[in-house]
Amino acid sequence: IHRQLIQLRSRLESHYHEVQDFEFTIEKGILYCLQTRNGKMNARAMVRTSVEMFHEGLITKERALLRTEPAVLEQLLVPQLAPNFHAKSLAQGLSASPGAASGKIVFDADTAETRGRAGEKIILVREETKPEDIHGFFQAQGILTSRGGKTSHAAVVARGMGKPCVSGCEQIVINDQLRSAKVGDTVLKEGDVITIDGGTGHVYAGEIPTVEAEFSEEMNTLLGWADEVAVLKVMANADSPVDALRAREFGAMGIGLCRTERMFNATDRLPIVQEMILAETLEERQAALDRLLPIQRADFKGIFKAMKGLPVTVRLLDPPMHEFLPTAAQLELEIAHLHQLRDTIKALEDLPETLKMLNPKLYQQYADGLTPLMGALSTFKRSHMEAEVIAKKEKILKKVRALAEVNPMLGHRGVRLGITYPEIYSMQIRAILEAAALCGKQGIEIYPEIMVPQVATVEELKRIHSYVQRIRQEVRATHGIDVQFKFGSMLEVVRACMRSGRMAEIAEFFSFGTNDLSQATFSFSREDAENKFLPFYNETGILEDNPFEVLDIKGVGQLMKMAVQNGRATNPDLKVGICGEHGGHPGSIRFCHHIKLNYVSCSGPRVPIARLAAAQAKLLEDQYREPV
Questions:
Q1: Is 153 one of the catalytic residues?
Q2: 526: buried, middle or exposed (CB in 10 Å: 19+, 13-18, 0-12)?
């Protein structure tokens, strides 16, 4: 009977070229097959059987690559909740970054960093995260926010780091003052353990077991076949040497986006960046930039070494400067507390004389105890209440108010910042080229690329290009090496797409920043849209998909297609890619292949998904039809 079963299985698989789930019966020692159907499999089984069936001669490599949906590979790349767990969901937000994690709740990045370094498992819980919270991300197991969408700061950073994130969990009300959060009648205090599932958006009380990710030999084999077939290169977004090495492990063919502002938010650099922003003269600002230069140079050198032999695209500073400073509301509260504390200390300092005047006998009784109290007050006042402390915070508040903009995302940022403060971009360009020169001296093969964000006009690009050429000559004179690199522009402004033919006279490459380009094309703020009306638009069919997750081919895609055609009409060798989150979405990747982009770039953990999707885009290119 066993031999008959093996023969039946082989005959069915040979006929259907697919794993079979069949029913059988045995009567009088004879095996009868009752019915058969294609077997249902999880991602791990699908990958394994694809490779095995090819080696058995049942399917071709092409069929092996097409059997697996790219998106299901995510199950193999991040920790998942144990399949047999039983727990009631406490709340549900948006599935912002896949994976599951458990840990103790903390409500600020500093505490997350401290407790994480001490070996505790931490979940960082915030209303929403900001760039200055980045140090807390590194030590947290996962991130939970009550506000923000799938393209919010928390979501994008967590995906880049491969950490689970649930965003926009509006059922959770966070009270930073009390260091607690409330979900209905349930109160969660700092230190309580929760579990988050970034794949479903669910939040659970307590710790739930997880199953660790496993990058199997079969997965490596399948993705190797994908790379042989694909035309599109798959790059990764990475902002540190650690991120770069991790991206390389996932099979990234280079860094398509290195965001320099992420480096500025590290705890050892942020005070220097703030000094630079608060500087009142060019000399003061240059002094701060001179301190940042060796730090940035070391960062870039580390990334170049990690990616030796592969291209690294560095984006010059993009966000507005106010993002590196505390908020006005936060500063106003701190200043009010300091004034209140100063008044309290003044009253305590007057206490001995007041007591002596009102009740001399009582004063004599407590005189010995008052002396050390006065000493402690004096020490505290010297260390915490000097006039400079309040004056410094008031100076920062004044600067924050001066930098305030009605719409900062359409304001003083990106290339506009680099033109009005040329010393900032000059420092970054110098750091890139000096790092490249130092690597060159060590025999490290590097391919640096300098990318300018938020460009709208050719004149802007020309201005930054002039900085680059000047600094290139200076670096050559100092280091004796003429660094070879590419100079390019992000296309994330509609006007830049319309003028891509002229842009290509200067730029050697374009990279579509589809997150901002989608916002500009739809006139949507992605956070507001995802938190207010976009779900309703999707439910009612006004929009088929969330345009910040799935590339809008009918609108944004047409801008991209036109920009590619006009750019290559000027420069046939123009390299074009995409570095928004759409670069890891399989359907969007098919369109990128269709319009003949050279590469896509996505967060490191999505690189395997993009590699398989790029291969499928090539295999199915004859069947592709643009939506109308």
A1: yes
A2: buried
